[in-house]
Design the sequence.
């Protein structure tokens, strides 16, 4: 019953910044854990960063830790991914996903937990 719509993807130069948004509708936003995932051509879909329901605990992939920050605003039913110091290898389709559960922190970004997905937004990092 939850619907997710991503936006904000575009072409950006290496070293630049971008903020992705995911707006949710149709259910109790605060009850959901959210994650950002990405898929580059020819590669498996991989976790980027995730944020747990209620306590807002986060976990991120080693490749983006220190550069990307996930956040949520329960008053706006929105999840964000702030991406800084972007690299060409960050180029991918980025997906927002949700699940109505509370995984343990070490398991927060396990992709099989997530059962609701947005349509994706393209991020291209190139000079």
Sequence:
């Amino acid at each position: 019953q939850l619907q997710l719509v991503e936006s904000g993807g575009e072409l950006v130069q290496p070293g630049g910044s971008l903020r992705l948004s995911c707006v949710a509708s149709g259910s109790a936003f605060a009850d959901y854990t959210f994650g950002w995932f990405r898929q580059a051509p020819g590669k498996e879909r991989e976790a980027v960063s995730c944020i747990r329901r209620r306590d807002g605990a986060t976990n991120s992939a080693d490749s983006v830790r220190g550069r990307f920050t996930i956040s949520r605003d329960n008053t706006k039913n929105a999840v964000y991914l702030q991406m800084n110091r972007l690299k060409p290898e960050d180029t991918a389709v980025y997906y927002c996903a949700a699940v109505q559960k509370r995984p343990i922190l070490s398991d927060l970004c396990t992709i099989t937990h997530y059962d609701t997905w947005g349509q994706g937004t393209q991020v291209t990092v190139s000079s």
Summary: The two ends are 40 Å apart (CA to CA). The chain has a mean pLDDT of 97. The chain has no helices and eleven strands. Residues 39 and 55 are 28 Å apart (CA to CA).
